[in-house]
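About this split. The held-out portion is used to measure sequence recovery: a designer receives only the structure tokens and must propose an amino acid at every position. Recovery is the fraction of positions where the proposal matches the reference. Here is one held-out target exactly as it appears in the evaluation file.
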């Protein structure tokens, strides 16, 4: 990953983009792809599509722009904010965090209240549901707080982005700005190779609240195949218990992108991506998805009578916390893999199964 590519990743990661409030993050993405795409377009909800035109099959590489967060649901008499969830926010990591409320007039700082350990009973250590938690902005009355924020304002944990050892990076919201980075970079690398296929890079909205943007884009775009790029659980850290759900998975951080098999994942797209990985000498990992992927692939593959789809995973530790960890080598490998797939697929006539 060169300096320009890393700057793009950092800008994506430091631009808040909770579901339903993705506009600022989508502007960052559009500005980047506009430098090399033949066309960039957006729809009424902010889904963004960039294309490099070719004469071969139409391939789409899609990540989702939105992150989890909180939303102001009310203001009490003493000026404390009540909050609800945006997406799968984790009640075990919200208390005691510095947050930003994204108000119409700018960012308002606050903290999620946490009772001091000295004042808690031993029975009180289970975290409250998010709708029972509160944000303190320093206001002393409902009137004071209402001058700063409104009900419906989005809330995100205050951003920290840190380089760890080697090529590993920690930040909030890797899920799934790393996917939109990969989609954009795959498009750029496909353009550099002058592939014959028409290649789309897509940055969808509102995945975390039900794959909404992918449904819109899948209907509108109708490509021959789509690869949905999202994070997947890295299973190589001490916090992971192999007796729990998902723990039969064998995914390592830095082990390369993860090709899912089963359910939404079309067998011919899977085979084509695996063949491209072999040919390009890109390391990949495999993952079973017997019922669903839990990603935009689940929406894409049922649009337009069925779009051959694949979920490509990017290993991620500590998902849906403010300290997610990825290895940038996995992101680079995924972008290279998709560019190789586009190059290799240029002569294909679709991906349908033979019966």
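Reference sequence for scoring:
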């Amino acid at each position: 990953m060169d300096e320009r590519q890393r700057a793009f990743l950092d800008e994506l990661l430091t631009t808040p983009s909770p579901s339903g409030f993705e506009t600022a993050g989508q502007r960052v993405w559009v500005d980047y792809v506009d430098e090399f795409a033949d066309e960039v377009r957006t729809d009424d909800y902010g889904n963004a599509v960039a294309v490099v035109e070719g004469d071969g099959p139409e391939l789409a590489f899609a990540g989702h722009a939105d992150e989890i967060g909180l939303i102001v649901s009310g203001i009490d008499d003493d000026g404390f904010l009540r909050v609800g969830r945006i997406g799968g926010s984790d009640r075990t990591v919200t208390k005691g965090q510095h947050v930003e409320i994204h108000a119409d007039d700018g960012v308002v700082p606050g903290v999620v209240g946490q009772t001091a350990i000295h004042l808690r009973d031993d029975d009180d250590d289970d975290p409250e549901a998010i709708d029972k938690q509160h944000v303190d902005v320093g206001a002393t009355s409902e009137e004071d707080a209402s001058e700063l924020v409104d009900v419906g304002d989005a809330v995100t944990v205050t951003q920290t982005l840190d380089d760890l050892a080697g090529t590993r990076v920690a930040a909030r919201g890797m899920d799934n700005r790393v996917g939109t980075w990969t989609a954009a970079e795959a498009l750029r690398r496909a353009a550099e190779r002058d592939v014959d296929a028409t290649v789309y890079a897509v940055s969808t909205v509102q995945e975390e609240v039900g794959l909404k943007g992918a449904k819109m884009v899948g209907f509108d775009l109708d490509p021959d195949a789509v690869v949905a790029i999202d994070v997947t659980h890295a299973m190589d850290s001490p916090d992971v218990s192999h007796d729990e759900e998902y723990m039969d998975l064998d995914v390592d951080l830095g082990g390369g992108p993860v090709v899912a098999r089963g359910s939404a994942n079309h067998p011919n797209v899977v085979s084509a991506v695996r063949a491209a990985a072999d040919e390009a000498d890109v390391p990949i990992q495999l993952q079973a998805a017997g019922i669903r992927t839990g990603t935009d692939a689940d929406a894409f593959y049922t649009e337009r009578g069925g779009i051959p789809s694949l979920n490509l995973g990017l290993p991620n530790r500590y998902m849906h916390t403010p300290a997610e960890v990825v290895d940038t080598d996995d992101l680079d490998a995924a972008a290279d893999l998709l560019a190789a797939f586009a190059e290799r697929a240029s002569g294909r006539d679709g991906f349908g199964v033979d019966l």
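Annotator remark: The chain has two domains: 3-67+172-347, 69-157.
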